[in-house]
Give the backbone structure.
Amino acid sequence: MDLQTFWFCLIVVVWAMYFLLEGFDFGVGMLLPFVPRSDAERSTTLRTIGPVWDANEVWLVVAGGATFAAFPAWYATMFSGFYLALLLILFFLIVRVVSFEWRSKSESPRWRAVWTWANTVGSLGAPLLWGVGLSCLVYGTPINSDGDFTGNLLDLFSPYTVFAGIAVVALFAFHGATFLTLRTVGELHARAEQAARRLAIPAVVMGAVYVAWTVAVAIDRNDKDLFPPVLPAALAIVALALAVLFTLRGRSGRAFAMTGLGIVAAVVTLFTSLYPRVMVSSTGFGNSLTVDSASSSHYALAVMSVVALISVPVVLLYQGWTYYVFRHRVGDAPETVG
Amino acid sequence: MVDAMGALAVTTVDLARIQFATTSLYHFLFVPLTLGLAPLVAVMQTLWYRGGDEAWLRLTRFFGTLMLINFAIGVATGLVQEFQFGMNWSIYSQFVGDVFGAPLAIEGLAAFMLESTFLGLWIFGWDRLSRRVHLATVWLFAIGSWASAFFIISANSWMQRPVGSTVTDVRAELTDVWELFSNRFAIWAYIHVLLVGLTTAAVVIFGVSCWHLVRGRNQELFRHAAKLALIVGLPISAVNLGVGSQMGVVVTDYQPMKIASTEAQWDTCQPCSFSLFQIGGFTVDDQTPSFSIQIPHLLSILATLSWDGEVKGMNELQASEAATYGPGDYIPPTRTTYWSMRIMAYAGTLVFLVFALGALLYRRGSLASRRWFLWLGVLTIPLPYAAALAGWVLSEVGRQPWIVWGLLKTADANSPSVSTATIATSLGVFVALYAALLVVDFVLMRRYARVDPPELGGEGDEFALPAVEY
């Protein structure tokens, strides 16, 4: 495997980690006004993701940095082209970050309601737009022969990409509900379980349609064959179907593993459908950016590969340890070991 | 007439620059305090761990709360910084990605990840981890934040002095990563930024302690904190004056135009006097100040470390740069560089003097009873911020017209696909959002700096940090 392909795979891993991890904390944020009924329960709900959401978000920082370093032309065209969408994403993420910190700083119910909703809007808006934006990579956007984006914000929205955004939101809500089921006790736990049951079928149907549609788009617009994208797509569908099954049977641990696997497989489906291109041009297929045309030099990629091969396992180890440390269920107070 | 219209029209590049300046300076309002408070809070917790003095535990939690409120905005605004290169400066991004991208990516993966993960462990791990492991988490957070700063400064220093790379027809390519990370410019800039961070944290701890002392509250506790701030702040702020001065020598070697502009030095001089204050003399058409206060030989000493050193003037440098790079204006906005350097240097010196006086009073045992001095301590809090922001203005404005010194001009580096209206929109969004955040953040910091540190063993969870009662 050449270094360009290796880095493409690494970027897939980073996006998969981001969606897998921030996916459930976005989901918990979306459920914040609905599943917990009292202010105390809302605080408990936030405590389930409190120790980890910030580190989860760093995967996005890594995705941006890795794309910049390994595929400068991809980073430049995508970030300047998807400008207003990214501006909105930043807005949602900033509002959400501060909502975590500031919600508890006043007893006033109004203040708390404002920051509860800020968290929810941010948790819903950011993944919606990531779904739209990343799907545009394979669906295609106007890119000229200089590799510059020539469209506007509306070019990002098509039935497929909008559906992708909504499907991502639905999957994250379900993923978040199963996570909440795992980390809570008592009445809150019962309501989280109920939310997971209600979300399971619609989320999974949308997820399945999304991966199938992605493979179809890849064949239609990106000159791909059914194979290999169909493999991760099939895996995603199987995993999500199992997630429904486990949820309905009350096996929340296994359900969470399957929503996670389903989300990872969906990310892999998207990028397998994209490779060897990184951004498809809708105005002239030959203008599409590819891993070769967009990448950094061999030396830069080699240096970065050494760093990545050392750092990524270390990061996974200590992040994994964090999840082990905070494996206990969060009760009202004091915390209950479960 | 056409020229006048051209001069008035705000271009896409202007707006992109205003946005970058606004968001970067705003981001850097939060960075130094995190850089400095992280190790100092770790020291407080270590003192408690080793000596068992509960005062240090209470102080750890008190200043830990301020650190968290501050860190949250640093994270949110840092993401904007990373995205902005691609959004507003796509030609720059394509040109430099091979070199500049590497430290950014390494920062995320190796440093920021460490910082964020262990901060989460520290906040929520008080009753989940043994005391020893919990102490390790705060130190790892501090190490992560310092490593993070190193990679960012390396990236910025490459823009100031591009090393370890070569330029092909279309872009810069990395040729030697060790050269990139051992850039002499980067080493000095990094030391300078770390010391700025420690100074800022020491000033904030000292100022907050003074406020509590003047109110006569928690005397014993905040005398502890004030002492720590003095022990750290006095030597660090002194050394940093020297390091900042050495930074000037480094800049003279690699960016002579920046130094000439900073000193409003139009003609080459030898020996050169340092202008403390001047009126006029900041533009090509007005090269002689109508009033100035000068110290003979001081500029020669500061810029070249010799009594009679030569400093090249802007007129001569303009001619030689035009000969090398082609016609154009190579003189940075001189009024801005001149005053930003002086705000930085004067504010930094004042901080040192406050610490020196504080140490003197502390030794005499009269610190807590001199109300005027305690108020002075409180009023010192804005100074390190002013110095740090002015320092970045100097560094970045002084690099103009270049975005990467000698390789790419700022005017040629923005995104061709992004319209003026789009950038104007995003600038409006950021200014409004950031202003709102600043107000709320200031109110929160103020409130949590003024509360009485809770007694230990109070109601509920003994180790709950107030900042994280979600």
User: Anything to note?
Assistant: Confidence is low (pLDDT under 50) at residues 334-338 of chain A. The radius of gyration of chain A is 20 Å. Chain A has twelve helices and two strands.
